[in-house]
Design a protein that fits this description.
By secondary structure, this protein is α+β, with helices and mostly antiparallel strands. The chain contains four helices and ten strands.
Length: 191
């Protein structure tokens, strides 16, 4: 009986790992996921086992790969990185078959600051709106200014803008259009 329980527990744990990996990969494939620094890519080259490895997207947005050197990954999809690797590997391997998949979306993060139960950084394994993110942070505490929440977001040029969010209004079913989908790097500030 105990052995069956342990075996079942092991199968459940393995299943959870497969679901987590599938979830990260499906986010990348379904939405044309743009890679972020901190993401982990699984790269394999068919019939070249020494070129199969996990690759981290560095803080500068690049990855390093044997024979290829550095490639810009941040902002590109896994498919675009796959194409770039295959193109550069052709010098050394005739007709390389390269596969790149998202192993972990560790760079796809949002941050929650201020008067919430659990402020901090949160990995987005799927698209999240403001209310979902605040729920992950344990919700607003009793001293929070519900209608003064702000989302800080940087544009492509690095300029930051503040997007107001009226928590109480959205919670009551009003102003639902303000419950926007967050982007990687967004900061939700709850005063």
């Amino acid at each position: 009986m105990k052995v069956m329980h342990r075996a079942r527990h092991g199968v459940l744990a393995a299943g959870a790992c497969v679901v987590a990996l599938w979830s990260a990969t499906s986010v990348a494939q379904e939405s044309g996921y743009g890679l972020n620094p901190g993401d982990v890519l699984q790269v394999s080259v068919w019939k070249e086992p020494e070129l199969t490895r996990d690759v981290l997207v560095r803080p500068d947005g690049k990855i390093s790969f044997p024979l290829v050197g550095d490639i810009v990954a941040a902002g590109n999809t896994p498919e675009a990185v796959q194409g770039a690797l295959a193109e550069r590997l052709q010098k050394y391997i005739p007709d390389p078959v390269v596969t790149v998949s998202l192993g972990a979306a560790n760079g796809n993060k949002v941050y929650v600051l201020g008067k919430v139960a659990r402020p901090g950084e949160y990995i987005m394994a799927r698209p999240l709106d403001v209310m979902q993110t605040l729920a992950m942070a344990g919700g607003l505490n009793t001293f929070a200014s519900e209608n003064k929440v702000v989302i800080l977001r940087r544009d492509g040029a690095g300029k930051q803008k503040a997007i107001p969010f009226r928590y109480a209004a959205v919670q009551n079913g009003d102003e639902l259009e303000n419950n926007i989908i967050l982007s990687s790097g967004d900061i939700v500030v709850v005063p």
